[in-house]
Write a structure and sequence with these properties.
Blueprint: E1 3-6, H1 12-20, E2 25-29, H2 41-50, E3 56-61, H3 66-76, E4 80-83, H4 89-98, E5 103-109, H5 113-122, E6 128-132, H6 152-161, E7 166-169, H7 177-184, E8 188-191, E9 196-197, E10 200-201, H8 203-216
Parallel strand pairs: 1-2, 1-8, 2-3, 3-4, 4-5, 5-6, 6-7, 7-8
Antiparallel strand pairs: 9-10
Helix pairs in contact: 5-6, 7-8
Length: about 220
């Protein structure tokens, strides 16, 4: 079955609900220039320690320097680092060398044909890609959580040619995830607002989403 990552987890209770309903990964958002779900690093550490080892914990970071990212990981102790902004190949190399047991996921924001080239160039430097609908070129960067879909045909090309697994994010919900999976064929899907009501994780909406993923898979 297509993996499901629930992002913007903000409490141990939300983490437990997501895990119970079948999420294989949880997104924990540290400081960002914009977007929802930001929580203190102390709470990220607490949630990461509380979930079952079978559930991956993703630290979403906007930092682009290896020293800062490594320090975050030492504080938060997650299983996976999600790099939400572009970083240099030297940073990827530093992280691999210093944190060999941590999975590295690079976010690629799909804005056009150039995003396909960018994704395929960076794929051999990380363990996974995550395709989202932000825009890191804006004066206030959008690094995720926009609630927008993007051009799935571009994402499908990346999935087809990528040497590593690919998560699909951006505007997903129970009504469109079937089409998204059938179009893109991602390793996993990732969402935040699509399973929330008034900002809180909605168990009914998450259950509907998981059923739709299962049907598409």
């Amino acid at each position: 079955m297509t993996r499901v990552k629930i992002c913007c987890i903000c409490s141990i209770e939300e983490a437990r609900i997501a895990a119970r309903l079948g999420a294989s990964a949880l997104g924990l958002v540290s400081k960002m220039p914009s977007g929802p779900g930001v929580i203190p690093e102390a709470l990220i550490t607490e949630i990461a320690a509380a979930v079952p080892s079978s559930v991956d914990t993703f630290l979403l970071t906007s930092r682009t320097d290896s020293e800062g990212i490594i320090a975050q990981q030492h504080r938060c102790r997650v299983s996976t680092i999600q790099l939400c902004d572009r970083v240099s190949p030297l940073v990827h190399a530093d992280l691999r060398r210093t944190l060999p047991d941590v999975t590295l996921v690079q976010v690629i924001h799909i804005t056009g044909e150039e995003s396909v080239v960018e994704a395929l160039q960076v794929a051999n430097q990380v363990d996974m890609l995550l395709l989202d609908s932000g825009n890191p070129s804006l004066s206030v960067k959008e690094l995720g959580g926009t609630g927008r879909t993007h051009n799935w045909s571009l994402s499908a090309r990346i999935v087809e040619e990528s040497s590593v697994p690919v998560f699909l994010a951006g505007g997903l919900n129970h009504s469109n995830v079937d089409e998204a999976i059938r179009t893109v064929h991602p390793f996993g899907v990732d969402l935040c607002s699509g399973v929330r009501t008034a900002g809180a994780l909605d168990e009914e909406r998450l259950h509907a989403f998981m059923e739709a993923v299962e049907a598409a898979s």
